[in-house]
Amino acid sequence: MLTPDISAVWVVGFLLLCTYLLNTLVFKPILRVIEERTTAVRSAKELADSAARKATAAAAEYDQKLHAARTEVYRQMDDMRKSALDKGAALLASTRATVEHELEIATARVQQESNQARAALDRDAANLAGAIVSRVLGRAS
What is the spatial distance between Cα 100 and Cα 107, in angstroms, rounded to a whole number? Predict the structure, then answer.
């Protein structure tokens, strides 16, 4: 039969004491540090995800504002181009009207000078014809 020995009780007591001391002094602090690190990692990951979402939203807002600004600049450029074309067309029409008016004045002046020259030629021709006739008749007589 087995007789319990007091040394077995001491071993069991020592084992329980070692278990308690290891649990209290080693395992609980290690588990607490692991839990704190896990919490810190989870918090950092959530913070990084939040920052990534904010960065994505900021990039989307930037792209939207950039697109709106470009659209506005292109619209302004188109308005300026149309305005310049309208001014050019108005200037061309004004210049054309001025040139046509000056051409009409010059044509009228040339026509008037031509009529005066014809009248002077007709007068001179009549005088010359009279002079020729009087010479011819004057010599013939």
Answer: 10
59 or 6, which is more confident?
59
Within a domain: 122: no
Q: Which of 90, 93, 94 has its CA nearest to residue 82?
A: 90
Residue 57 resides in a domain: yes
Q: Is the pTM of the predicted complex or chain greater than 0.70?
A: no
Task: Name the pLDDT band for 60 (thresholds 50, 70, 90).
Answer: very high
Counted domains in the chain: 1
Nearest-angstrom CA–CA distance, 102 and 37: 95
Is the pLDDT at 141 greater than 60? The verdict is no
